[in-house]
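Q: Give me the 3D complex with tryptophan.
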Amino acid sequence: MCHTMTRISSLLWLCHVCVFNISVAKVCTLQNSFHPGFMAEGDFVIGGIFPLHYNQEMPDLNCTYKPPPVKCNGFDPRAFRWAQTMRLAVEEINHSSELLTNYTLGYKILDSCAYPLTGQRAALAVLNGMSEDDSPMCSNASPLLAVIGESGSAQSIVVSRILQPFRIPMISYFSSCACFSDRKKYPTFFRVIPNDDYQVKAIAQLLVRFNWTWVGLVRGDHEYGRFAVQGLLKELQGTKVCVAYQEMIPLLYNRRRGLEIMEVMRSSSAKVVVVFSAEGEMTPFLKDYMTQNITGIQWVASEAWVTASVFSGSEYYPHLGGTIGFGIKKGYITRLGDYLQTVNPAMYPDNPLVQELWEALYGCNAIPSSPSRLPLCSGHELQLPQHSAYMNISSPRVAYNVYKAVYAIAHSLHNLLLCQPGSGPFENNSCAQNNNIYPWQLQYYIQEVTFNIAGEEVNFDLKGDSVPYYDVINWQRGTAGNIEFVTVGLYDGTKPTGEELMIQEDRIMWARHQSEVPVSVCGASCPPGSRKAVRRGEPVCCFDCVPCDSGKVSNQTNSIECTFCPDEFWSNKDRTACISKEVEFLAYDSLGITLTVISVVGASLTIAVCGIFFYHRNTAIVRVNNSELSFFILFALVLCFLCSLVFIGEPTAWSCMLRHTIFSITFSLCISCILGKTLVVLAAFTATRPGDNVMKWLGPRQQRAIIFSCTLMQVIICAAWLIGAPPQPFRNTQYEHSKIIIECSVGSTLAFWCVLGYIGLQACLCFVLAFLARNLPGNFNEAKFITFSMLIFCAVWLAFIPAYISSPGKYANAVESFAILASSFGLLFCLFASKCYIILLKPEKNTKQHLMGKEKK
Ligand code: TRP
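A: Here is the predicted complex, encoded as structure tokens.
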């Protein structure tokens, strides 16, 4: 800490001290000097701060001796090229016949070592002179009109804070941090690079576009990384993208932390990793990464490293190939290539930076006198891959920004000098004094400047920002196995929302040399037929797929919800579409056909019996047993058998009405006949004498009348039913949701049970009477059979009720027609089997004597 303080105070050696007290000036000494890398005199001097080294050694914190000069490590040829671009621009302007014609620009270029503290030192050094004597501080004019710099936002913040009190404007060529948009905090800050607000928007759109819903974020430990991640998180809110992890690479890289981050990357299913960082910390991080054998990572690079040629070596391709990101706008600087060639140790024998450049490019020692372990340069050095970091001028991006920044200052100065006294922008319409320009006066002109450079218009908005434009850059394999930065699209922030991003997807080569878009999701996508179910306590992007319930469908991948099918529809097996529900009724399928066959067989059997009886109508057994009633019963039974047929087939208005009515009337008829018969039997045997009154009252006519009236009763009930509330076909969707069951609603339940009850009543009555008559004498007492048949009849129908109520859909009909058939068969067999047996097989027993039981054995 004390170290830092000493340095600040030692360098803060400011003008007013000298101005107000000349005698003090003598004791005013520069405590620590810091030499510019390059400098040139001129009428107006501008400063340039570049990160000519990647990093510096940690300062020594011991305060018991004078702190040694800072040691910077890792020469950065790319930043050196930027610095040279600034010199080129100044020289061009000085030679120009249009800009600043009678004036020259000077510059001081300092190294910040990509470190905020050193940037601060550079800022102070650029304000101070090199020594007390040649310091312009003590003249009236400002020593410095503007500063071009810095690169990293973290350094720019510090530099801006130092320049602010003096109102010295600065134009940054690479500091994109959104934080600079706060005009109150950074009133003198301008930049020729878009604000990161746009970049994070672009990255968010990219993630959404490629459906990367589960991504990792890695950033460096600086304002740039912090604000960019913050901005991206904000931008991702409300999109389908979730962040799997956020990691920070320490400013001074350490391997243990790096490996921890890699472990997170390896274990996460987020294959897309967005990195807001720069070469400084990325280089050691990636070196470790390449030893870790982590596969399938798709990098999304921020503008800070997406065009960093340090990573273009072929050793990086297997790990970084396919990287995609947004690069800042490129431009073309005609003379840059030639100019860079002129920078060599021969031209600058005393410049340590040039020597370092040579060491970095060719790995040799360019200056014989200097102490170096490297072999001496021969002058015919081979071009090494590192060379491209310096000489790569095919598409300068940051260098182009530097170039624009210098021109912006030159144009502003030019405008300032053109000011007509009396119509100037300052107090009382005054102009700036040409020989004593204040930096704040220049700031005014920078804010207003608009000019054209290589066909591009340059200006600054009220926040000092410039136009948001990015190239989409994809890292593809070059011919030599190296990485080439291929432009595959663009992002134009001035376009209306939604149209900013334009990508030629077919030109993109993804990570691991693949042409399919990599997948980076937490939960695999849910196919149609299922829906997402968010896991508790996890981000919304992590979900399980749950199949839709039956009756619900989802027809899109990744549906959030399954939707109900409309009423008459039901989900198909896969739950991907609604199909019309299956309609169910007792059709002529196997069940229907069986029932039909049984009923036809029953009816035929009955007719056969009828035939036998008719044929043998004159035999005793037929005559004794009241042949007329027998025929009636047989006729009714035929109808009973046949009426089960109306229960088969699709219910229609007619068949519904017929079903229960025909059934109940025929059964009523049948049982009435049996009842008649029972009465006759009872009467015949209870009559004491022949010709008794009872028999008179039960003659054939009366019998018919009884049958008729008993049946009529049922007919009346049925008529009332049909008129009042007739049964109707009814589409039952409730019983089974997947089917529509077409059934006959009973209309009136009361009527239904009345009808059944009436039959039941008849049957019971019949049963009781027959039961009373069962023991009456006679070899062929029909009462026994009638008792038995009624017993069966009642049993069948009692069993029918619970079966009917509990059977679903079409089975209810089947049960009913089964009950009809079973009871009909019961009646047929009980009443007629034994008679047919005697008629056909035992004709000898078919005599009156035998039947009356009077036959002598
Ligand atoms: N746009 C970055 C920034 O604003 C670029 C950058 C340059 C950078 N140097 C850096 C980022 C060093 C991180 C570290 O900071």
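A quick observation: The first strand starts at residue 38 and ends at 40.
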